[in-house]
Amino acid sequence: MRKFKVTGVDCPSCAARIERRLRDTGLDATIDFDLETLIMDDEAVEDLHCLLSHHAPEISIVEPSEGEKDFPFRGLLRLASSITLFVVALLFSPILHGRNEFFEYSLFVIAYLVSGGNVVFKALKNLLRGDFFDENFLMTVATLGAFMIHELPEAVAVMIFYSLGELLESLALRRSRRSVKELIDLRADNVNHLVDGRLKTLPAKEVKPGDRFVVRVGDRIPIDGVICSGRTLLDKSLLTGESVLVSAAEGDVVLAGTINKSGVIEIVATMTLEKSYTSRMLELVQEGSIRKSNRERFITRFSRFYTPVVVLIALFVATIPPLLFGEAFSEWFHKAFIILVISCPCALIISVPLSYFVGIGRASREGILFKGSSFLESLGQIDSVFFDKTGTLTEGRSRITGIESTGRYDKRRVVQYAALLESYSTHPVAIPFTEMISDVPKWMKVSSYSEVAGSGIVAEVNGKRVAVGNKSLLNALGVGFEEGDDSGRVFLVIDERIEGVFTLSDTLRNDSSEAIAELRKLGIKEIVMLTGDHSDRAASISTELQLDGFISEATPEDKMRAVESAIKSGKRTAFVGDGINDAPVIARADVGIAMGSSGADAAIETADVVLSGESLSKVARAIEISRSTNRNAAQNIAAALGVKLAFIALGAFGLMNMWGAVFADVGVTLLAVFNSVRMLNK
Ligand code: ADP
Ligand code: MG
C-alpha cells in the first residue's frame, strides 16, 4: 500500500468520481477526501504522474518536502495587512461614526475578512456537510453577533488574535518537524553488496536502480527493489500499520521501510535512496500525528459535546430573561454573544496537541525520537524499566580479547569461518568479526544461513555445517562441551565439533550506572535486566549496577513474558533494547525504547521511542521531557477551562464586556500557545 498527499480534490463526490475513473484504468486507488490522500494497493506503478495527468488532470501529487519547507508567508502577510486595516479602522472610526456608517463598517468588515475569512468559509463548508458545532462555527456566530450589536473592533480582534495563534502554532510545528527530520537524517543508511561472495558495506545513497544488494536478517530494507534471490518473511508494519509477516521470494517487489525477519535476501534496486527514503520519512511524521495522546483525544471528544452545550446556554441567556421577566431583548442578546465569544474552545483545540508536538520536537533536538504523542504521554507515567544487556547496558560493539583453536583448524582459519558467518549478522557480537572479513579466502561460500536469536548462527559453508554462538547454541545443536566459565565466550562449531573458542569483551557503557542512578532519582521503582546471555555475567552486572533483579539465558519469548507479567500486575513498563531478539518485548512493553545507532533496524522500527547516539542517560532524559510535556498540557487545559468557566459565569450575570470575552477566548489561546512554545526554548 502506498499513500500520496494530493491537491485538487474539491468535494467527496469529486473524490468518488476520480476514483472511478482511475479504477477503469485498472488502478486500484482510493482517495481520502478529508486527509487529501491517494492510497494505492498496487506497489509499483510505472509512472503515476503520467497516469494521473491523463486520467485525473484535476489532482496533483504534493511532493513530501514541499509542505515542510514553506514558511507561512501567506499567513504572516494576511495577519499584517489585517492588523494595518484594523488600526486604520480604529483611527478613523471616531470621525466616521454617525456620519458615514457604511464606510466605518466596510473598513472593519474588510479587516475581519482578511484575517477571519477562512474561518467563516470553513464554518460554512462544515455546515453544508452537516457538521455543526465546531470551533469555526462558534467563532463565526460569535463574531457576526458582535457585528450585529455594534461591537466592531471586538469582532475583528477575535479573528486577528486567532490568526496570530494559528501562525505561532504553524511556526512551532515547523520547528519541531525540522528537528525530527534532522534526527532521522542522522541515521546513515548502509547497504551490503555481494562482491566475490563477500559482503561489502556501502553507503545506501550510492545505490543506483539496477544495483544489487544483500539484506541481512533484522535489517530494514533501505531502498525499493525486487528480490532476485532468497526467500524470507517481511514485516511491513511500518508501511501498512498492521503487524503481519508476509512471505516473499524471488520476483517479489519490496519497499523501503520493510523489515527483513527471517532469511538473507538479495535485492535489485528499482529506486534511489532519496526517492525511497523521503516516502519513509513522511510515513514516520504522519505516524506520529496518528497515535494521539489521551489528552488530545479527550479534547476532541470534549469539544463535541461542549460546543452544543455552550450554544444552548447562550440561547437560554438570550431568550429566558426577556420572555419570562420582560427584560430588554437587545441587552440579553448582547450577553449571549459575549458568552459565545468567551466559550470558543480554540485554546484547548490548538494548545494541547501543540504541547505534545513541541515536546516531540524538543526531545528530537536532544536525540530522542518519539514516534507519536501517545508515547510521549505514557513514558512520563512509567514505574518499571527493563533493560536488555548486550548492546544496551553494555557497549554497542564487542571486542575480541582471546582466540583459541581447539581442533583441526589453525587460528587463522577459525577466525575466517567465524568472520564469514558473522558478516551476515546484525548482532553487536558480530561487529569485530565482520571487520576481519577481508582475510576470508574467495573459495569459502555460504549457501544457507539462519540466525538463532540470542544464541548465534547456523550456516552451510562449502558443504560443511558451521555454527557460531554461545552455550545455548551448543546445547541446541547437541554438541558436548566442558562446563566452565563461559560468560563472554563464543564457540565455532564445524560438523558437530568445537573448533574454536573466542573470548569477547562485554564492557558496560560508561554512562550505564549514571543512567540507572538518574532513573532512581526520577522515582522509578523497579529496574530489571533481561538478557539472553549467561547467568554469571548477568549476575555480576546486576550487582555492579545495583539492579532490582535480572533474568538470564532468556529467549525472546521469556523477555516478553517477563514484561507481560509486570504489566498484568499493574505496573507501567518501559523496555530498552537493541537486538532483533528484543523486537517482540519492545512491542509488548507499554513504551518500547530502542538504541538507535547500534540497534538492529527490527528493534528501531518496532520501538515507540528511539535514542540516537550511544548514551543511555537519554532514557532518563526522555522520561523528564515526557513529564514536563504532560505538565505543560495539563496547565493549558486547566488554564483554558478555568478562565472560560469563570468568565462564562460572569457573562451570564452580565458582569463581562466584550473585551473581557475576547481575552477569555483568544487571550487564553495565545497564553497557552506561548506556554507550549516556552517548553521548546527551555
Ligand atoms: P542480550 O539479550 O543481552 O542483548 P542476546 O540475546 O542478543 O543478548 O545475545 C546473547 C548471547 O548470544 C550473546 O552474548 C552471544 O554470546 C550469543 N549470540 C547472539 N548472537 C550471536 C551471533 N550472531 N554470534 C555469536 N554469538 C551470538
Ligand atoms: Mg541486545
Keywords, separated by commas or semicolons:
5 domains, 682 residues, binds magnesium ion, Calcium-transporting ATPase, cytoplasmic transduction domain A, Alpha-Beta Plaits, binds adenosine-5'-diphosphate, seven-stranded mixed sheet, 52% helix, alpha+beta, 24 helices, six-stranded antiparallel sheet
Describe the structure.
By secondary structure, the protein is an alpha+beta fold. It folds into 5 domains: 2-61, Alpha-Beta Plaits (2-Layer Sandwich); 73-181 and 287-357 and 629-681, no CATH class; 190-274, Calcium-transporting ATPase, cytoplasmic transduction domain A; 366-394 and 509-628, Rossmann fold (3-Layer(aba) Sandwich), CATH 3.40.50.1000; 408-496, Calcium-transporting ATPase, cytoplasmic domain N. Helices cover 52% and strands 18% of the residues. The chain has a 7-stranded mixed beta sheet with strand order 14-26-25-24-15-22-23, sandwiched between helices. Strands 16-21-20-19-18-17 form a 6-stranded antiparallel beta sheet, sandwiched between helices. Strand 25 (591-595), helix 22 (601-606) and strand 26 (609-611) form a beta-alpha-beta unit. Helix 6 (135-148) runs antiparallel to helix 11 and helix 7 (152-186) runs parallel beside helix 12 (346-365). The protein is elongated. The protein starts with a strand and ends with a helix. Mean pLDDT is 82; it is low at 65-69 and 284-290. Magnesium ion binds next to helix 14.
